[in-house]
Amino acid sequence: MIDNISWLAIYPEIVLLVMACVIALVDLGVKSCGRAPTYILTLLTLLVVAVLEAMYARNGTTFYGWGNMVVSDAMGSWLKCFAAVAMMITMVYGRPYAADRDMLRGGEMFTLSLFSLLGMFVMIGANNFLVVYLGLELLTLASYALVALRRDHSQSIEAAMKYFVLGAMASGFLLYGLSMIYGATGSLDIGQVFQAINGGQIRHQVLVFGTVFVVAGLGFKLGVVPFHMWVPDVYQGAPTSITLLIGSAPKLAAFGMTMRLLVDGLLPLAFDWQQMLMVMAVCSLLIGNLAGLMQTNLKRMLAYSTISQMGFVLLGLMSGVIHGNVDANAVENAYSAAMFYVVTYVLTTLAAFGVILLLARDGFESEEIADLAGLNQRSPLYAGVMAICLFSMAGIPPLVGFYAKLSVLQALVSSGETSHIALAVFAVIMSLIGAFYYLRVVKVMYFDKPLTATTVSAPMDVRTVLTLNAAALLVLGLLPGGLMNLCADAIVRALAT
């Protein structure tokens, strides 16, 4: 018999699942080409779920349920809340684009998005290897379908096939690694795995072997080198509204899953997995920024930008434990900096792709960097929003991207390790190289002649949300303390359990 606290741990997931099914049924009777009732119900569902998770997070209590298979804590609740908000913003930005391209003949875009969000919630709240894998598969299967949603577009179908093949391989890596850890520890429960490893009554070689495959699976979801092959092709080939979806909220889920597996379960093996994260971070910063210099397609450039940005997240994750010694302050600073970086990166990505979606017209995608030529003359507001996003990604003050990079670098340097200080210097150099391709887009928007005299127009909801999104990047850059303290408190509460 399942007690009440078990249900309490998954109330938001239950609401999300029930409403996804209800919306799918309601949509059968919707005749409007814009799917307005489905769209409104989806936004209301996401708003309710976000408020529920915010209430859970503010309460700060940790709940375990379903035989300890799921956990609801402050870190997980905030990540779920941010993921729901990101999905809500994605729906606002993506609906006009999808309607122009006949992607709303049915309500699949909305229902599949809700199911993908449900997969993210399951991943973030998992306290058992099987639940982790269940959430991952729910997210990825919905994502494959969303990428292929534009059935008359060969590039989208090709991107979906690449995503499916590489995603299946990454899922196999993760599942094989989890099975090896289960074989070594005799448990699927993440907490019991931690205790078994800490007790030392296991075969270290088998555990390390399993950890290698787990890190490979996590690397694919984060989109870091050498598991980045899918990112540029899927970003470019998918419909832009779906590119925004897979490039924003899932990063929060991937971070949550990484924290659950590597920190909650495999922290005693930190010396082993930190070495892998370091190599992946260095390669991601190097390849992401150098390859980004050569791109002319804006979506592909942002894909390589994502790879380099995730390299910074890995730097934060690998700097918490020094030579196997767990220091509470170092752990808090490192993991809270990584969480802060992921949240602010998602916020920046939403605004950047929001502008791209806004510029796209029926029959014209506005995907090339040259398509933004003279945007300032056509629309100073949207050129300013895009410039804010690009400056933030480049880490230029006073925008939030600068503070995000600074917090990760501080976590690295404060460890006192010579290798970590060298990594911080390398990250700064790579950021300077990456700033070139961000500033190149700004130059095109402000100094090149426009290719068309077409004015840029947007629905009121899109214009309002996009303006608020850009304003948040500036406000959080000037006043980052609130969000940083929130992330630190969430990490402390999560680690305390």
From TrEMBL:
Keyword Transmembrane helix: yes
Source organism, top-level taxon: Bacteria
Membrane spanning stretches: 6-26, 38-57, 77-94, 161-185, 205-230, 242-263, 275-294, 301-322, 334-360, 381-400, 420-439
NAD listed as a keyword: yes
Topological relation to the membrane, as annotated: Multi-pass membrane protein
One Pfam family recorded for the sequence: Proton_antipo_M
Domain annotation NADH:quinone oxidoreductase/Mrp antiporter transmembrane: ranges: 126-430
Catalysed reactions listed for this entry: a quinone + NADH + 5 H(+)(in) = a quinol + NAD(+) + 4 H(+)(out)
GO molecular function: NADH dehydrogenase (quinone) (non-electrogenic) activity; NADH dehydrogenase (ubiquinone) activity; quinone binding
Keywords: Cell membrane, Membrane, NAD, Oxidoreductase, Quinone, Translocase, Transmembrane, Transmembrane helix, Transport, Ubiquinone
Record-listed E.C. numbers: 7.1.1.-
A single BP term in Gene Ontology: ATP synthesis coupled electron transport
One Gene Ontology CC term in the entry: endomembrane system
Subcellular compartments: Cell membrane; Endomembrane system; Membrane
InterPro entries per the UniProt record, alphabetical: NADH-Q_OxRdtase_suN/2 (IPR010096), ND/Mrp_TM (IPR001750)
Enzyme class: translocase
Quaternary structure and interacting proteins, as annotated: NDH-1 is composed of 14 different subunits. Subunits NuoA, H, J, K, L, M, N constitute the membrane sector of the complex.
Main function: NDH-1 shuttles electrons from NADH, via FMN and iron-sulfur (Fe-S) centers, to quinones in the respiratory chain. The immediate electron acceptor for the enzyme in this species is believed to be ubiquinone. Couples the redox reaction to proton translocation (for every two electrons transferred, four hydrogen ions are translocated across the cytoplasmic membrane), and thus conserves the redox energy in a proton gradient.
PANTHER family documented for this protein: NADH DEHYDROGENASE
Family, per entry: Belongs to the complex I subunit 2 family.
Descriptive protein name: NADH-quinone oxidoreductase subunit N
